[in-house]
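hey all, quick one before standup. I had two proteins in the batch that finished overnight and I want to keep them in one place so we stop losing track of which output belongs to which input. First protein below, input sequence then structure tokens straight from the run.
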Amino acid sequence: MRIGTVRRPPRGVPKEEFASRDFYDVWLPELAPSQELVRQAQRAETDREWQRFAHAYRREMSRPEARHLIELIAALSRRTDASVGCYCEDESRCHRRILRALLEDAGASLAPDPGPSAQRVEKH
């Protein structure tokens, strides 16, 4: 199962075509940073600025609705393969790396961390 964790869906692609056009199977924008945080992440040039974004994103993901989804994905990961993705090319400066840590904290069964050069976070 491919889980899209982006705030906005691909432009011009109807929701019912996300899977058939090979974007993702399930769209969970609730696990994406808010639009304000997306802008903050895009402007982050230093490690300190990125850490401020990471802290704010973790705070957003501590809300009950986000925690429930993280716990659901963690539970599913113990029974099926899944991958979490977005549009960022560099995972080291992407919310996916933080989301991976949150999933791990919630007890998700994860593949070994592929490192900062990986393009996607996958669970096997």
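OK second protein, same deal, sequence then tokens:
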Amino acid sequence: MTRRRVSNPLALAVLGCLTEKPMHPYEISTTLRTRGKEKSIKLNYGSLYAVVESLQKHGLIAARETTRDGRRPERTVYEITGAGVEEFEDWIAELLSTPVRDFTSLEAGLSLMPGLPPDEVARLLDDRCVKLRSELRALDAELAESEALHLPALFVIESTYRRHMLAAELTFVTELAQGIRSSSFPGTKTWRRLHELVAEGTSFEQIMADPVRHLGEEAKPFLPQ
């Protein structure tokens, strides 16, 4: 990925708002919240003013005017510059066209799941399925409301994408839990036996010193190559 002059995803959201019209930071924050952009972009509203300042420093936005409404503090209205438009368009183009390796919490958990007994892993995956179904129901309700309001699909495309990803994850996790519980998932019997031996008092180190003797022929992949 390209090294951005201001890499905070909030900066991209700010640029996106300012491509529509000049705004002051409070209006930018309100616009992003109203549109629910925090569901798709990791936004830290507490750092909004720092991001705005950094964008201005790098010439991507510029102060247009400063206004005061009664006794309220002065508000600076910002507009996007030509360089800012180029940065925004290039950033969006890269996000849409270039796959990036994202490390997810689920992937990390899957990579280390042999550290828990298989039946416990299956139970935990079942718990995840319950939460995924709940999130899908909430998302479906949100999409149904958008449809009732006749919102163009363009305005909810990120939610549609999220729904497809959640549904795919639910299918994968459900099948994995079932496979582990029935031992149809390859290696589950060996995995289960390993934890049974540990529970009986055999150390993991002892098992790995002679895995075939403790776990049978299926443990040959554990042998040093």
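Flagging for whoever picks this up: The longest strand covers residues 61-67. Residues 15 and 164 are 28 Å apart (CA to CA).
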